[in-house]
Amino acid sequence: MAESLLITNIGELMTQDPGRGRDTVLRDAAVVLEGERISWLGPAAAAPAADAVTDAGGRCVLPGWVDSHTHLVFAGDRTEEFEARMAGRSYQAGGIAVTVAATRAAADYDLTRLLLARAAEAAAGGTTYLETKTGYGLDVEQEARIARIASTVADQVTFLGAHLVPAGLDADEYTELVCGGMLAAVRPYVQWADVFCERGASTAEQCRRVLAACREAGLGLRVHGNQLGEGPGVALAVEFGAASVDHLNYLSDADVGLLAGSWAGWDADSGSGRRGTVATCLPACDLSTRQPLAPARRLLDARVEIALASNCNPGTSYTSSMNYCVATAVLQMGLSVHEAVRAATYGGALALGVHTGRDADGERAVGSVAVGHRADLHLLNAPSATHLAYRPGMPLTAAVWRAGERGA
Ligand SMILES: N=CN[C@@H](CCC(=O)O)C(=O)O
Ligand SMILES: [Zn+2]
């Protein structure tokens, strides 16, 4: 039998498990980990014996963060572009080309080393489940290389060949390549496909072709949409039944209506029913690009399931700190602490299709604390999750367990 660990004397255990009804936050609680899974949780006074014991000292335990949107495989940085933006220039999709040039020039060893260091930074900040994307290669060989390297580190990988049309190429010919040879080359390494549906990136028609080809190839879908202005991204995502649409800085009433409609068959209170398209908000990106914050409150009030993610990348959001994203969502987007933590854990898991699991074949759910789920836990250096927003920027991550292994 696997080694067991009892984490006891937990002041606040925020499970984010919709299966618990109203009882999602436990006080004076304990959790037992057995190998990679959670085998028990409940009142500390009733906890079973275990091989080892950790005393949480009255502090708070959360599910590990699920970061459902990052771009971590890249070389170089874009400090000058950031400085220009802080001096008043607006973000343009064309900046992606700077990172593509630096990434293409980097050796496999260096890209892997950079990716490992970024994943370690994320883990040290409480992230236990990580998605990352291709999109800084933009030719067949480079996209396949990035996908392969990403798949050695990230939990899930997304193909983003339709990030930018490289200079000098015809947009329609490039789209054909993305749907053909490039898709075939990345396919062994990826679970998802994404498109950047925006002025200066890809048109709705080009995105539609990529989404259709990737769906045909068996990939799940997501969309970067409505980041720089109102546009077709949300409608396209809902039309294709995408798992998420991300950014959402400029939403019309019709966009909110479409997203809400996609969740009409879902019961958020029990986490059951027919799921829709998750609205993924990226607060760190919104601040770094000085875009209006995504309307997370409005989306929640319309009963849309939302996720919070870091969007860590060198152009628009060079941070993987989910603590920072959660604090911003509370302080500036009008979310309660519980809603923000839910979006950064259960919401991210919904966006990646891992909110439920199949224990029998070892595919464990993440993003909530429940028996049978993967033992991904985040111990805060604070008595409650409220401190994430009350003490923003402070080093509140005390310990992390990923699949039962102690990290930070
Ligand atoms: N918006 C598109 N892609 C990234 C930014 C990429 C870049 O500028 O390097 C994003 O999610 O913000
Ligand atoms: Zn992105």
UniProtKB/TrEMBL annotation:
N-formimidoyl-L-glutamate binds at residues 136, 313, 315. It catalyses: 4-imidazolone-5-propanoate + H2O = N-formimidoyl-L-glutamate. It is found in: Cytoplasm. InterPro entries: Amidohydro-rel (IPR006680), HutI (IPR005920), Metal-dep_hydrolase_composite (IPR011059), Metal_Hydrolase (IPR032466). Its EC number is 3.5.2.7. Fe(3+) binds at residues 69, 71, 224, 311. It holds the Pfam family Amidohydro_1. One of its GO terms (molecular function) is imidazolonepropionase activity. Binds 1 zinc or iron ion per subunit. Its main location: cytoplasm. Its cofactor is Zn(2+); Fe(3+). Pathway: Amino-acid degradation; L-histidine degradation into L-glutamate; N-formimidoyl-L-glutamate from L-histidine: step 3/3. Catalyzes the hydrolytic cleavage of the carbon-nitrogen bond in imidazolone-5-propanoate to yield N-formimidoyl-L-glutamate. It is the third step in the universal histidine degradation pathway. Belongs to the metallo-dependent hydrolases superfamily. HutI family. This is Imidazolonepropionase. It comes from Arthrobacter deserti.
